[in-house]
Amino acid sequence: MLSRLSRLPRRKAVAVCALPVVALLAAAAFAPLPFSLAQPGRTVDVLGESKGDPVITISGAKTRETSGQLRMTTIVATGPAVSLKLGDVIDGWFRTDRAVMPRDAVYPSGGDVQEIEKHNKAEMKESQETASQAALSYLGKDGEDIEVGLEAGDIGGPSAGLLFSLGIVDKLDGDGSGGDLTGGRVIAGTGTIDASGKVGPVGGVALKTQAAHRDGATVFLVPKAECSDAQSELPEGMRLIPVTSLKGAVSALVALEKGKGSVPSC
Fold it and tell me: What does UniProt give as the signal peptide span (predicted)?
């Protein structure tokens, strides 16, 4: 092949060599790729209602009226059966309101849509249980006497744990001295939580800050390990507060509300 090409004029040789490359690019343009395209999803105020139902209900203890908002944030992604093409991936890479993510990172459980929804609902249920445990433990209240109900509608996954816990704390105790944790602000955030109150990373935070900004939030609570991701596409005017625990998140919000003490920053 090389000897035959060497006898061709340069322009013809280049054209012949380019044919396989063009063919490969054309095939790649139409071949399905193992990615999902994500974008900012809806946010929900855990102190309010979701589709007409209270997000947090508490029985067995006196609750307080709250002001401000604590908004859990979400992202939405193309489904596991949706095939992205090369053009979709390239377009997503160059947009700040989109993110191209490996499909396995978005849908680690695999399976079909029904199996994934079942998995996400199970994660949400577990997240709600640990969020309640973490909040009641932080407040030193007996979980056997107090019943907490959490309703997130069709939202799945574990990433609302921190906001659920903060909402329970605000409804039961506020800032501990009669005020609100929010200070009347619209505060958003994300993060998993375990029963001990430890906050964990989630993913998609750069998109979640955009969702929060769109819905009026000016403060965003982010797992400390994801500060750099949150800063990458941070909307103008949005303040990031890194957290590693429920206790730290409450302390930071109280300091912000009262204008006293140290408020962490990324």
Answer: 1-38
pLDDT digits (tens, 9 = 90+) for 196-255: 999 999 989 999 999 999 999 999 999 999 999 999 999 999 999 999 999 999 999 999
Point out the catalytic residue in the list 127, 165, 208, 245: 208
CB contact burial 192-224 (16+ within 10 A = b; e otherwise): bbbeebbbbebbbbbbbbbbbbebebebbbbbb
Which pLDDT does position 261 carry in this prediction? 86
Annotation says 159 is catalytic = yes
- Of residues 36, 159, 165, 245, which has the active-site annotation? 159
pLDDT score at 75: 92
**How many separate helices (H) and strands (E) can be counted in the chain?**
9, 12
